[in-house]
Specification:
Blueprint (H helix, E strand, L loop, with lengths): L7 E9 L4 H15 L5 E9 L2 E8 L2 H21 E10 L1 H4 L12 E4 L11
Parallel strand pairs: 4-5
Antiparallel strand pairs: 1-3, 1-4, 2-3
């Protein structure tokens, strides 16, 4: 069963430096505010387990993911000064991931190819 779903999710995990959690969370709030205006962003938010953080984010397609990376670049730079990127996954169909592999290579992500599934249209 193939999928017509073009959604790309970026799945980063961070370990926040000692004493920097409040600073990290302040940057997270800025990221959320800045991302709200991205038309191809489906969802975006941060969750925490102590000093570990995860950004839950999804985009309509690779174009939306790339637009986000460009939009959030300076804030991500600030985040990486106080937190280590411990794991980065990117999920999506192979055609979409092909557009992300080179632009994201410096972040060393693991790419997961979506082969089966569906997406429901939900109103907010």
């Amino acid at each position: 069963m193939a999928t017509n779903d073009k959604c790309c999710t970026i799945v980063p995990y961070f370990k926040v430096a000692n004493g920097k959690l409040a600073d990290f969370k302040a940057l997270c709030a800025k990221c959320v505010e800045q991302t709200k205006n991205e038309p191809k962003c489906l969802f975006y938010g941060f969750s925490f387990d102590g000093d570990q953080a995860h950004c839950r984010e999804g985009y309509q397609d690779a174009e939306g993911a790339l637009a986000h990376l460009e939009n959030i670049g300076p804030l991500l730079g600030e985040i990486l000064k106080i937190a280590e990127l411990t794991r980065l996954e990117v999920h999506g169909p192979s055609e979409e991931l092909a557009q992300l592999r080179v632009p994201m290579a410096d972040l060393n992500p693991q790419f997961f190819v979506l082969e089966y599934g569906f997406r429901r249209s939900m109103s907010t």
